[in-house]
């Protein structure tokens, strides 16, 4: 027993000082699945203690207290403190990472426009709180829908935080896409690399296997495109990935939470700790107009590599005409969302 406890502790090298990590919507479903990943060291590493900042709205206070009790009861070696609050100053104070998961949910009969309207003030507040209280190098991941445009709204209200510190989540879409490809090829997901998702986290997103490779049973790296046909890519794969969120809702009666938290973990971990050599990840980031003809000042999912806590857009991939057309459509949707969410917008 004694020996086991000792060796378990040796996995945690707590030489670093703790970082403050905000999770908004912490009393919700994704929060419940994400907190243990952050507390357990799966996002920032087993050597990085954390102080959890858990934010939810006042009516959720009691539920949030219950979540805090469970964090306490986990006795997580890496958790050096918990701040549970509905106060934005407390929640955003000195945070170095922010998972913005809390938002107004889509209700039956709500249009995208209504969802944008309900979430705009939440992300105006989040942007202003980041501006006032957060660490200047805070890394922000927006999960709450409409994620890309919520992220743009926050960025637009935090002028002194670099635009490169804002991102929205398309990693769940690309993880779904990777898994669909793996199933089609009959290999484990880990054998498949560089499946991408471009554009908006919505049905216009563009899942893309053009640059994907997989490891065959005899350990060869092969292009995915050589093993699947176009009819499958455009007729089955893309719509399956685009509609996967809706399929989970109809099966579970609730939206994806386990897989969403898992993707948030993957996104933030890769951003903080780096991507493996030769691998791209899909991240929705502020376009500066320099890649793939996508206009500036929308939050668009691009292939990215991360190193030293920074992402770079991979800019030199050859895009087919068919994919180019789809990239335009999803860009157009983001431009429309921007004009609905930020009327009179004149640039970041
Ligand atoms: N980007 C993606 O891939 C992806 C995937 C799944 C879900 N989502 C989105 O993530 C969000 C959360 O999903 P969920 O299943 O956890 O929902 P949920 O309703 O279970 O939890 C959301 C929580 O946010 C809280 N909240 C509402 N307004 C808030 C505010 N102003 N400040 C702080 N907290 C606030 C709510 O009280 C609730 O506890 C939704 O917007 C959902 O659409 C995104």
Task: Write up this protein.
This protein has 348 residues and is α/β, with parallel strands linked by helices. Helices cover 42% and strands 18% of the residues. The protein has eleven helices and 14 strands. It has helices at 2-10, 29-39, 61-74, 88-92, 112-133, 147-156, 171-185, 230-242, 244-252, 258-273, 321-341; strands at residues 19-24, 50-55, 79-85, 97-100, 139-142, 166-168, 192-193, 196-198, 206-208, 213-215, 221-223, 281-286, 299-307, 310-313. The chain has a nine-stranded mixed sheet with strand order 3-2-1-4-5-6-12-13-14. A three-stranded antiparallel sheet has the order 7-10-11. A two-stranded antiparallel ribbon has the order 8-9. β10 and β11 (221-223) form a beta hairpin. The model has no long low-confidence stretch (mean pLDDT 95).
Number of helices: 11
What does the main sheet amount to? 9 strands, mixed
What value does the average pLDDT take?
95
Write down how many β-strands occur, each being a DSSP E stretch of 2 or more residues.
14
Summarize the entry for a quick read.
The chain has about 350 residues and is of the alpha/beta class.
Write the layout of secondary structure elements.
Elements: H1 2-10, E1 19-24, H2 29-39, E2 50-55, H3 61-74, E3 79-85, H4 88-92, E4 97-100, H5 112-133, E5 139-142, H6 147-156, E6 166-168, H7 171-185, E7 192-193, E8 196-198, E9 206-208, E10 213-215, E11 221-223, H8 230-242, H9 244-252, H10 258-273, E12 281-286, E13 299-307, E14 310-313, H11 321-341
Parallel strand pairs: 1-2, 1-4, 2-3, 4-5, 5-6
Antiparallel strand pairs: 6-12, 7-10, 8-9, 10-11, 12-13, 13-14
Helix pairs in contact: 2-10, 5-6, 6-11, 7-8
This protein binds nicotinamide-adenine-dinucleotide.
